[in-house]
Give the backbone structure.
Amino acid sequence: MSDMNIVCLDMEGVLVPEIWIAFAEASGIPELKRTTRDEPDYNKLMNWRLGILKEHGLGLKEIQKVISTIEPMKGAKEFLDELRNLTQVIILSDTFTQFAAPLMKKLGMPTIFCNTLEVADNGEITGFRMRIEQSKLATVKALQSIGFETIASGDSYNDLGMIRASKAGFLFKSTDKIKADNPDLHAFEEYDELLAAIKKAL
């Protein structure tokens, strides 16, 4: 086992339920169920979401209220605790600090790199700032450039870059389409399977 490893995990769909799906259900706006599993272009997806929020007069406060009711997936915290006992872990997510903070508390405050929302004084979400283009892949490459080896796992189109760029990469709770399009990638449904695969790669 090398001590130069960092495990990079996606957040939504891997450790916690999809925030936008939970919000779509709570607000009764089914269009908001679209995620990066359906739309590979994240900017397009976010701009579309912001348009829907504006149309319905919904802002950050309403979304944060729903997020406060979301619990990590069953077994996620135990999986993360065990993994963090073995090696360094960074959560790489295209979500926003304003959404992720309460969820990180429930997961024991792991390190997360994500983006930020632009919010007006009245709580309207007016825009979003991505930390860097293709943030997951760019972060994995940056970690490798300073001497780390990465192991990555995620469920969506925007995770494929970091999964393929890492020395070991796995799909987790992904869609049938993404699994079918990437038959060479190991795909797991249970945390103990993913943990075993990561241990083997360490």
Observations:
- The domain at 5-15+72-115+130-201 is CATH 3.40.50.1000 (Rossmann fold).
- The beta strands are 5-9, 88-96, 111-119, 125-129, 149-154, 168-172, 186-188.
- The two ends are 5 Å apart (CA to CA).
- The chain has a mean pLDDT of 96.
